[in-house]
Amino acid sequence: MYKATSSRITDTRALFRAAVAILLASLFYSVPTLAKEPHAPVKQQVKQQDIPEKIHIDADQMKLNITSGNSVYTGNVKVTQGDLVLTGDRVTLTQIDNTLQKFTVIGKPARYNHVTEDGQTIIAESDQMVYTASENRLVMTRNARLEQPDHLVSSQKIIYDTLNKIVMAGDVGDRDAVDGESSPKNQRVNITLTPKTKTDSKNQ
Fold first, then answer.
1. How far apart are the first and last CA of the chain?
2. 56-195 — its CATH code?
3. Nearest residue to 120 (alpha-carbon basis) of 75, 154, 151
4. Which of 85, 82, 96 is nearest to 48 (CA)?
5. Domain ranges of the chain
6. Among 138, 143, 141, 168, which Cα is nearest to 154's?
7. What is the pTM of this model?
8. How far is CA 43 from CA 34, 39, 46, 52, in A?
9. Mean pLDDT by 10 residues, the chain (204 residues)
10. Which residue, 51, 117, 180, 192, is most buried by CB atoms nearer than 10 A?
11. Going by C-beta distance under 8 Å and a sequence separation of 6 or more, which residues neighbour residue 78?
C-alpha cells in the first residue's frame, strides 16, 4: 500500500514538473516574438529614410560621360530632389566611385530653393553655385544672396551649411571656386535682419 501511494505521488510530481516545463517553454519562445512586433514598423521607417530620394533633371541638352558618370546639362536646367530645387543655365553633376558628389550650377542667376523639415523656405541665388551633397554644403560666388525667414545676406561669396544652418559670408577661401577661378574681390557683406514681433514669439 505504501509503495503504491509513493509511486502515485512520484507520478504526480513528474506530471507537475512536466507541465511547468511546458508552460515555461511556451513563455520563453513567445516573448521574443511579441517583442519584435512593435519594432517592425520602426525598421521599415529606418529603411525608408536610408533610401535616397530620386533626382529629376530637365534641360534642353545633356552630355554624359559613361566611363566617369559625370554629366553636363545646358539650357533652362532644373534639378529637383525632394524639396530641393536647383535651376541654372548650365549644371554639372560630378560622381566619384559611382556616388554623386556635387552639383555645379552656373546661371544669370543660378538659383537654390529648399523647404526645410520645419516648413521654412530657403532661397539663394548667385552667378555660380557648388552644392556638395555629402557635406550638406552650398557655396555661392559672385552676386550671392541668401534669404531665410528672419534675415537676408548678400555678398560676393556665401557658404551655407544646409544641415546645421550656418551661414558664412565674405572672404572665406577659394576651396570651392568654379573652374579654378579665384574668389571675387571687394567681398563686403550686407545683412538685413527681420526682428520677430511679439505675435511671432507667442506663436512659437
1. 86
2. 2.60.450.10
3. 151
4. 82
5. 2-50, 56-195
6. 143
7. 0.64
8. 15, 6, 5, 16
9. 53 52 39 37 50 87 92 96 93 89 94 89 95 90 92 93 90 59 65 69 55
10. 192
11. 57, 58, 59, 85, 86, 87
